[in-house]
Amino acid sequence: MIEFHLDARSGVAPYLQLIHQVRQYLRLGLLCEGDQLPTVKDVVGQLAINPNTVLKAYRELEYEGLVAARPGVGTFVTRTLADGSLAALAPLRRELQRWIGKARRTGLDDESIEALFLTTFRSATEGEEDIA
Amino acid sequence: MTAVLRAEGLGKRYRRRWALSDCTVDIPAGQVVGLVGPNGAGKTTLLHLAVGLLQPTAGTIEVLGDRPAASPAQLARVGFVAQDTPTYSGLSVADHLRLGAHLNPGWDARTATDRIERLGLDLRQRAGKLSGGQRAQLALTLALAKKPVLLILDEPVASLDPLARREFLQSLLEAVVDQGLSVVLSSHLVADLERACDYLIVLIGSRVQIAGEVDHLLDTHHLLTGPRRDPARIPEDLQVISASHTDRQTTLTVRTEGPIHDPAWTVSKIGLEDLVLAYMSRTADAARRPALEVQR
Questions:
Q1: Cβ–Cβ contact B262 with A under 8 A
Q2: Is the pTM of this model over 0.95?
Q3: Count of domains for chain B
Q4: Among A69, B31, B202, B224, which lies 20 to 30 A Cα-Cα from B239?
């Protein structure tokens, strides 16, 4: 069973944070097909969070085809995101590590590296959206 | 969806001062509604109007489709926990449960005793000897055992320490899952309500500044930073909530339904706390402005 956590300062809506966490667990292989997600009451009790927030996140995940609700039993993972991508993770991580090393050698501090990555990532994502 | 609380042009005046004015809200059922605002904004007045402890000076208010406290049936459907979760300090926990059973026709003794047991409260203990957190939980137990459709709580966690606060909200929200009730609770601390509520009403200076679903509020408010620009040159589709300028930079909190295309702005997300603070500073500015004109 997984456990959720919330970052109150991120400015990201709590239901999105829950969705991101499930997707991330799926990608990393921490959640596999057939695994049960915590019940709404469990999440509510653990995080002191609004039940509709949890329901909204679970509905969205269901809509994406990642989980399915079995009435009276719970919500279960129906698909994994780790398949092909898990194998691709290691080389990508190595490349990123090399890049970070390079950035450090040019004298950038951690904060500048993070800012550079985030702005580049954002502009690249926006570029993709424009093309689509 | 039916409204649990609907107010139109609602106002309450104490002598010459309006504690609440021109309040129009429509709160759908099945939600946990946070009522936030600084002290003295009119939160308690609005809640007292909702439970029928006060009569409106202007406008109308309907709770669960009826006038507040209109009938015994209406009273039975609305639970109310007054400010700082009061209990009778001379009465024991068991006395409180007996009192609750005696006064409420729909009393669910099972819910009450189960909760008291889970909380580990001693039935013989006097309420005056309980900790603040335990007293709050006792008051909540009484309110939940009467099986209301709508539960109204006035500043329930204000006087609790952070752990008791978290535990109180946890049991309140678990009860929402179990009993499917709607909740309205007030607080002057946004952080308390941020996770617990899915609907927010911001009440400042006796007026409702904004009301809506929390996710929608977060999606439609943004923080913009960019090179300094003339306030008159800000596009009309951006509703500026608060603005600050330095000699080279302008920072705005804006509300807009559409995306922001102007590349000169760096757009960031805004947390609920900053959003409420932006509305508070706007009201403070508006209050100062006429005074400045008088001076000139």
A1: no
A2: no
A3: 2
A4: B31
